[in-house]
Amino acid sequence: RWVLSLECKGSRNFMSALRRALEVDFKDKDKQKSQGLYLLTTGIPDQETHTISAYVAEACGGFDLQLHVCLFSVTKGTDCSGIIPARYASPREAANAFKEIVQAANGRFHWFGEAGIFESDDITSIISEMEKAKNYSQKCAFLVESLKQRS
What domain of life (predicted)? Predict the structure, then answer.
């Protein structure tokens, strides 16, 4: 709701935005069954990862709230309208920081760019399920073959 009225100012003050979302917009969070908070970002927050992770773990603990992050890596040379982030990190460093933060919040992490998907917890989960199904199918086929040979 309130996000629609905000204007881009070039800051990545994650803690301020997260506190606003959790302490103002989710004030009745204990009455909700399940909620997710989605962060769409292009870079690392101003604050240290361990500080954010500790706050997120505490804020999301005790009820079913997950923080999910979608990190979009902007191609080098893209015009950022002169906005310089308060803290710089490589795309890999930003990805590692957000992975740590979403783990503290029992959330999911997705990292993509113009070239496609670099990493996604959902896709990793789907691939894992497909591997389990393939292994199960192979075991079943082996069992069927061994039963046929006994007959």
Answer: Eukaryota
- Beta strands at 116-120 and 109-113: parallel, antiparallel or unpaired: antiparallel
DSSP letters, 44-111, are --SS-HHHHHHHHHHHHTTTTEEEEEEEEEPPTT---TT---SS---HHHHHHHHHHHHHHTT--EEE
- Dihedral of the alpha carbons of 107, 26, 24, 45, in degrees to the nearest 10: 0
Domain ranges across the chain = 8-121
Instruction: Give 66's strand partners.
Output: 36
Whole-prediction pTM value? 0.71
